[in-house]
Design goal:
Acetyl-CoA acetyltransferase, 436 residues, nine-stranded mixed β-sheet, 15 helices, Thiolase_C_2, acyltransferase activity, transferring groups other than amino-acyl groups, Thiolase-like, two-stranded antiparallel ribbon, transferase
Length: 436
């Protein structure tokens, strides 16, 4: 029997998400601000919950890198007008790519404590563009104009995530962690490098099939379609080719995130207060049973694996949930091996066998063990802070049966979302549909 790890039950009553996009590439979205993007997501979440801004007591604002991507150090203060919360209390927070997952925990804790009954938590990121001119954080910025972020400039900012005193000496800078999970999996599960290569490619294929059915995803063209355009018979042939070059011993180019822009928001409410606050709620609430958390910096060997083990154990111990209870799984797979190793650690896929499930297509939206039905970071896109709440959005939609063509076969009742980011914070979120 599962139970909440909070002092009082807290449930998700509304979700909202923008399309993930390259805003500066489209005249219709160029010059949008963070406030407008977050406003769209926040108002959508309130509409979904059937409430107004006056029903919300407090809000959280998440952004992974406001110093690099924004124009303010306190962006939460400047966005409230865009969704009717001028004058309400708020906090800005940043946990890099884990921001959106921990955003849910922050909101749940505020409600569980009894301080507030209804809280909005939102996150926004311009992962593909920065405030203009993008030459230095010290340079005065244009109030709304933005410019594309080259990979060179993006990687320059990621050094802020790492311990620059000891990381080099401990052999753990960013360039050396990408292959860590794949190497560890090959070594401990006894599969070959060729089998791992196929597994990585199949994760890309499955993510892209999921995204192709998702109107909010950054890309919709399947790898089979891309393969045929380039003269290959199959998607796997294409992904094994120089069109998808290796970036190390294992990972290829398609295995990494598509950084982009977007926002997402979630409304949480004390479960006991839902009849009073949400008189127009048209769907079942989804309870937040708990969030396990762990953090290691990059000088720790296999830090993503160790932190995931810790976070999963905490939430399982506190809620009574096990891997056998999970019906759907999400992982922040900006390094695509994340969804293989975390699904095995969580017991959603059997230890040492997860790669077979992936290569057989069983983890796509139409398989029996769906993972990242929105397309994940490699196909839905990665708007850093917003990605976690975008996953919560997709998970809730799946649990309500509202995902159309990509709706999973079995309506999920219990879900896990494994967040990861910031060299590195890890969160293991467990959600469960409240039955009548």
């Amino acid at each position: 029997m599962s139970k909440s790890m909070y002092g009082r039950s807290v449930s998700i009553i509304g979700v909202g998400c923008t399309p993930f996009m390259y805003t500066v590439d489209n005249p219709e979205t160029n010059n949008l601000t963070e406030h407008e993007l977050l406003g769209y997501a926040a108002l959508s979440a309130m509409e979904d919950a059937g409430i107004r801004a006056t029903d919300v007591d407090y809000y959280f604002h998440g952004q992974a890198s406001p110093l690099a991507g924004s124009n303010q150090l306190t962006p939460n203060i400047h966005c409230g007008n865009w969704f009717g919360m001028k004058g309400k209390g708020s906090i800005h927070h940043s946990e890099a790519c884990c921001t959106g997952y921990l955003a849910l925990d922050l909101a749940a804790n505020y409600v569980a404590s009894g301080k507030y009954d209804c809280v909005m938590t939102g996150a926004v990121e311009f992962g593909d563009s920065n405030a203009y001119p993008n030459d230095s954080v010290e340079t005065p910025k244009h109030p709304y104009k933005r410019e594309k972020v080259t990979m060179e400039k993006f990687l320059f900012t990621t050094k802020w995530l790492y311990d620059r005193v000891y990381a080099r000496a401990m052999m753990a800078p960013m360039e050396l962690i990408y292959d860590d999970a794949a190497e560890e999996y090959v070594r401990t599960r006894g599969i070959t490098a060729e089998q791992m290569d196929d597994t990585l490619n199949w994760m890309c294929i499955n993510n892209r099939r999921n995204a192709s059915k998702n109107p909010l995803a950054i890309v919709h063209e399947t790898y089979q379609e891309i393969a045929e355009q380039n003269g290959f018979a199959t998607d796997l042939d294409y992904l094994r080719s120089p069109y998808n070059p290796r970036m190390g011993d294992f990972l290829r180019a398609a295995c990494l995130e598509l950084k982009c822009d977007g926002a997402a928001a979630v409304i949480v409410c004390a479960t006991e207060k839902i009849p009073e606050i949400c008189k127009n709620l048209k769907h079942k609430p989804i309870e937040i049973l708990g969030v396990g958390a762990s953090s290691y910096n990059a000088i720790n060997p296999h830090f993503e694996i160790r932190a995931t083990e810790n976070a999963v154990k905490e939430v399982y111990d506190r809620t009574g949930v096990t891997g056998d209870d999970l019906d759907i799984f999400f992982a922040n797979d900006f390094i695509i091996t994340s969804h293989l190793i975390s699904a095995e650690i969580a017991g959603y896929l059997p230890y040492g066998e997860g790669w077979k499930y992936i290569c057989e297509g069983r983890t796509a939206y139409d398989g029996d063990k769906p993972i990242n039905t929105n397309g994940g970071r490699t196909s839905f896109g990665h708007a850093h802070a917003a990605s976690g709440l975008a996953d919560v959005y997709e998970c809730c939609k799946q649990m309500r049966g509202e995902c159309g063509e990509r709706q999973v076969k079995k309506l999920p009742k219990t879900a896990m979302l494994r967040g990861y980011g910031g060299a590195q914070n890890v969160a293991a979120v467990v959600l469960k549909t409240i039955e009548d």
